[in-house]
Please model this.
Amino acid sequence: MYITRLIFLLFFFTATVGICETSNTASIHGTFVDAENGHLIADVLVRVAPEKTAHVYPDRDFEHATATGEDGTFSLTIPNEPQTYYAFSLMAIHPQYQARHLRHEMAPGKSRYDLGKIALKRTLSLEGSVTGAGNLTGLVVNLKMHNVSADFFRAAAPIEHAAKIDTQGKFQLTELYPIAYTLTISRDGVIIAYVASIDPQRQDQISVRLLEIETLRGKVVDTQERPIAGAQIYATRRPKTPQAHGAHLASTQTDETGTFQIQVLETEPQFLSIHVSKSGYFSRVYENVDIGKMPPVIRLEKGVTLEGRIVLPQGLPSDAQYAVKIFRAGADMKPSLNPLALQKPILSRYFPGSEPTFTIDGLFAEKYTLYVVGDGISAVNIDVDASTKPEAVHVVADQPTAILRGHVRWADTGEPVPNAIVSRAWYPWELHPHDMSMTLDRFEVETDTHGNFEFSNLTDARYQLHIRAVHAVHDADTGRYRRRLVHKQVEVPAAGTTYRIYLGKRDGTPFTK
Model:
């Protein structure tokens, strides 16, 4: 009787789990095989990301993961609520095979996806030999993958590879992808060989002949012919194409007499640059350098030093910082939503909030506009004429920052819009000199389940907002959701109130308070 009851309970439990899995989860199954010989592949890392119906951006967290067994198969369970998920992305990663990305739409009522056999191509290898060398001790070969836009390899492939060269001048690099690489060989941090582009899919062997090393000697002085000690000298090889990589060939610094000597790989003049710099002086950059024609004496001009005093808001944290960002006078300071139209500061310096004074050196004798910004500090600007050797400037930046709040609703139904992406325009004083378009995601937020969003730490000004949301409508005939991306732009002030913004066809006003 006990065994019969146990069997019944196990059957009931299994049936219950199966029902729950069918309604709330989906299982994904597949087998990974070698693309060349069909052999099963064990230990493939399988990562899956369910993509949500109402989200603008596909989910790329790949939170669900497993690995294939000895038979090359895998089984993985993911959420399967039809109202929430519409597709899934799968990433397969193995050190001996090229990563592969798959994407499948999820059908309503379907709880099992059999992907069948999934073929993976092996990663590539590169064998090489070095000739023309004397002592091979300490030689290191390095490969760096070219920058190729939207290349999915970069999601899983190592960007750089390195290997030591043996006593016979041989080396081998593995786990490579069918994409171009730049190759360099170095000893003690100095590059002694450079190959602009190597594609391991087209060549699996390479012979690298070490070229001559040239010696550049010189002296760095100021405009009064006084030697400058500690000046940095960098030799750089520029790439031939935007996708390829240049190389930092070598570096050194001047001694107490201002003299230096640097060993530089023999390089065509059109690709060689020499950069000379010293804090407090204007840098000198020599392009298209012919080593034999470099001037023996390099003169650096001392820059203008700007000093200032600042008044900050009360109640800032003890570890607060503020930044002084410098723009040329007359720079366009309008806000922008376009990441390609960047107006960036030419210089940015950070100072502790506990320091009431700041010093900025190395400026040209020109006119500038200085902006003071920081957490809890509204941006304030002051114009400075560095050509007149100004006295210490006084900046009052004692206004706190503002908050911009909003509530996004569908115009037709009045329902809140969750998971909408709200991007705001940025002002140039909010940028850093090194900012790129891919670093500007800090200027966007996602609405919560009630359609609310918030931007904090803003200067009291007007901000353009770009709102993107997915309008998903259930199609009764197909059982699927039809997705439509809805855009809207508005402009609102950071006035400390909450704006109600409507999306949809019957949107009468840009926003209401």
Summary: The chain has five domains: 22-120, 124-209, 213-300, 304-396, 402-503.
